[in-house]
Amino acid sequence: QVQLVESGGGLVQPGGSLRLSCAASGFAFSTYAMRWYRQAPGMERELVAGITSAGGLTNYADSVKGRFTISRDNAKNTVYLQMNSLKPEDTAVYFCHAFRNSRENYWGKGTLVTVSS
After folding, report:
1. DSSP secondary structure of 5-25
2. Radius of gyration of the chain from its Cα atoms, rounded to whole angstroms
3. For a disulfide at 8, which of 4, 20, 23, 68, Cβ 3.0-4.6 Å?
4. Closest CA to 90 of 61, 59, 50
5. Closest Cα to residue 16, out of 70, 72, 91?
6. Cα–Cα distances in Å, from 93 out to 26, 58, 86?
7. What confidence score (pLDDT) does residue 64 get?
8. What is the rounded end-to-end Cα distance, in angstroms, of the chain?
9. Cα-based angle 22, 25, 27 (whole degrees, multiple of 5)
10. Rounded mean pLDDT of the chain?
11. 117 by DSSP, 3-state: which?
């Protein structure tokens, strides 16, 4: 059974940091690109960051460049999102996504990040 379980969300003050984790099971994690998406209330889901299967290449939304870092540990079947210098506009539910092709892709249920003083 495929599972993607996000953790690490919570309430943080502006300027603070959080580290999200996504633990994967039930599929060949190391052969999938991994992505973090987010969805704010009333907004469409947007891509935040992505990393290739071996971790050699990463990409980021312009809004988070220089503040967020995506990484992965294929030995632990886990992908991370380190979020620094958080802003209120970063408030959203953050989702983990595993992608290999249009038929082989999976979503987690999300973790809520709230940035507020």
Report:
1. EEE--EEE-TT--EEEEEEEE
2. 13
3. 20
4. 61
5. 91
6. 23, 21, 14
7. 98
8. 40
9. 120
10. 97
11. coil
For residues 61 and 93, give the distance between their C-alpha atoms in angstroms, rounded to a whole number.
16
Structure tokens at 21: 């984790």
Residue type, 44: E
pLDDT tens per residue across span 65-86:
999 999 999 999 999 999 999 9
Q: What share of the chain is helix, strand, coil (3-state, %, to 5)?
A: 5, 50, 45
- pLDDT score recorded for residue 84: 98
Q: Residue for token digits 């999102």?
A: 81
What is the residue whose two structure tokens read 């059974």? 1
d(CA 62, CA 113): 19
- Per-residue pLDDT reduced to its tens digit, 12-67: 999 999 999 999 999 999 999 999 999 999 999 999 999 999 888 999 999 999 99
